[in-house]
Amino acid sequence: MPQFTAYDGTQLAYSLQGEGEPLVCLPGGPMRYADYLGDLGGLAAHRTLIVLDLRGTGASQAPADPATYRCDRQVADVEALRVHLGLDQMDLLGHSASGNLATLYAAAHPERVRSLVLATPGMRAVGITVTDEEWDEATSAFSGEPWYAETRAAIDALTPETPMADIIEVVSPLAYGRWDDAAQAHAAAGRFNWEAAGAFYADGAFAPDSTRAALAAFTAPVLVLAGEYDGGPTPARGAQLAALFPRGELVVQPGAGHFPWIDDAGAFVRPVAAFLDPEVRTVAVDGVRLAYRAWGDEAAPPLVLVHGRGGDAAQWAPIARELAAAHRVYALDLAGHGLSDRSARYGFDVYRDQLRGFLKALGLAGVDVVAHSMGGVAAYLLAADTPGLIGRLVIEDAPVLIPADPPRGPVEPPEEEPAFDWAVVAATDAQINDPDPAWRESLSAIKAPTLVVAGGENSHIPQDQLAWLADRIPDCRLVTIETGHLIHQTRPAEFLAALREFGI
Prior knowledge:
Layout: E1 3-5, E2 11-18, E3 22-26, E4 48-52, H1 75-85, E5 90-95, H2 98-108, E6 113-119, H3 132-139, H4 148-156, H5 164-171, H6 181-188, H7 194-200, H8 208-215, E7 222-227, H9 235-242, E8 248-253, H10 260-263, H11 265-276, E9 280-285, E10 288-295, E11 302-306, H12 317-323, E12 328-332, H13 348-361, E13 367-372, H14 373-385, E14 390-396, H15 423-433, H16 437-441, E15 450-454, H17 463-472, E16 476-480, H18 487-490, H19 492-502
Parallel strand pairs: 3-4, 3-5, 5-6, 6-7, 7-8, 11-12, 11-13, 13-14, 14-15, 15-16
Antiparallel strand pairs: 1-2, 2-4, 9-10, 10-12
Helix pairs in contact: 1-2, 2-8, 13-14
């Protein structure tokens, strides 16, 4: 493992895994060996994780002076790592107890933090504590579990003299959203430096008033991620912490406890990866967090791109960059796709309403919309349902919602986990098999000038149905580009030419 020298001569180690921009990660515990973080549920696919072994843990040396285990004394270790890495600024993630360490670092070195992620963080650094009553109320969510009564009795038997190691073991079932095999294995594998843990919160570690004052001037974006079932911090306390930062944002991960990447890796990675990507922004629509990307001058005429089933906003990037010469281009990830939240329900009507909410949230009334396949259905249903919201409409090789003949049968998910929520397939196939007749009848209500771009005989979409669709929309023209279903990806020049001839 690579090493560097701290201010007091202690040799500290760190690990690297993944690809992309660096993300410096501080393990919690306190003073837990960093291997419990793993790859943070797959976050290493988006970022290079630089995980520090706190002094006296993992491959890092124990210091000559045990007093340097105190949280505030370790701020200098984080700064030494930054200098060693040659980073002018860094993205920083602190978990659990090291949420305090990351917070103190941000207060001491605000100019060195590009963005800050506090995952189920400790909050003593700012004087926020969770009361016993709050913890009991939060963990009572597990009262129906078969192990709860025994765990509760063991907690009630704890005393001030109980060793921290025993406390951790007793409360572990309450630290996860599900006490399943994965959670139990994760808990059992945890290793701590108990001497260091005892010193981490020693007297003098925190000065909440001065830290709060420093954070009030902290200008970098901050994500506080709380687990729905976490007793410390509770989501309410997470919101209190986020409010201390001028650019603080709270995300509550449904069904998660203190180790959210173990409870649901995807639900953890999506909001964190979206937050860390400077090209990605988010907006909430009906309680669902939608990620989107934007290109071009903010003052330019807006244009929205909508992907198809299994796609995401990033797939539009080559087209978006071309269109950004004359437009402010937005491309969103529909729910269940890309970096957006998963949803309890999917369907063309759900995505219609989601697109409507997205346009209204961004104030994009009368905007031109280019939409592919499933996204095209959502867009033309919206154009019919809410005339005036869409200016010009481009429908790229979208299903027409004439009952499928023969009907589509069940489709098994691939062996490798798909990049989108597979429930989308069943939901939309059911509507393709038996669509609401009112949807077809509403096509004549579309007021927007419309261009249907068909993919020709190599597309799985029946081309005669696309011609039928174009005939039913009052102000519509049909263009065929012989390439198949993924027109904007396989024939981008011809696709852009069709859009420009249409006036986009």
